[in-house]
Amino acid sequence: METYKISELAKEFDVTTRSIRFYEDEGLIQPDRKGTMRIYQRRDKIRLKLILRGKRLGFSLAEIRELFELYDTHQGEHQLTQMLNIIDEKEAVLKRQLEDINALLEDLSVAKKRCIEALGKQKTS
């Protein structure tokens, strides 16, 4: 069975060992212990990958924990339904943010055009 040290996982996923210990403290991963050394199994590595991906997609640690708990209790259909709900919520938030970003880009474009026009008028005067 393949095992990993905390430093190996930190290097592979480009995170700090402190971050990994934080996820452990939050109960999201549970390495075995050999004295003071943490020994991570394949399951922990997969969970760490899912945690980091979830965070990049805007999932909170509470949402990630909830999905892990649903998976651990083998509530497949319920888990998938819950995941769809979370995805729908995230999608709605991102669409609103995209609309805000597009509106801001348009405002910036108009402001830039006005500044360029004003500079042109000053140079010709």
Descriptive terms for the model:
single chain; 125 residues; mainly alpha; 2 domains; three-stranded antiparallel β-sheet; 3 strands; 8% strand; DNA binding; coiled coil; DNA-binding; Mercuric resistance operon regulatory protein; MerR_fam
Could you characterize what this model shows?
There is one protein chain. By secondary structure, the protein is mainly alpha-helical. The model has no long low-confidence stretch (mean pLDDT 90). It has helices at 6-13, 17-25, 42-56, 61-72, 76-124; strands at 3-4, 32-34, 37-41. The chain has 2 domains: 1-59, Multidrug-efflux Transporter Regulator, Chain: A, Domain 2, CATH 1.10.1660; 75-125. It starts with a strand and ends with a helix. It has 5 helices and 3 strands; from the N terminus they run E-H-H-E-E-H-H-H. Strand 2 and strand 3 (37-41) form a beta hairpin. It is elongated and about 80 Å long. Strands 1-3-2 form a 3-stranded antiparallel beta sheet. Helix 4 (61-72) packs antiparallel against helix 5 (76-124).
Could you tell me the radius of gyration in angstroms?
23 Å
Mean pLDDT: 90
CATH top level assignment of the largest domain:
Mainly Alpha
Shape: elongated
**Number of continuous helical runs:** 5
Widest β-sheet, arrangement of strands: 1-3-2
Helix content: over 70%
CATH architecture of the largest domain: Orthogonal Bundle
Tally the beta strands: 3
What portion of residues belong to β-strands? 5-15%
State the end-to-end distance. Answer: 78 Å
Low-confidence stretches: none
Total tally of structural domains: 2
Largest sheet: 3 strands, antiparallel
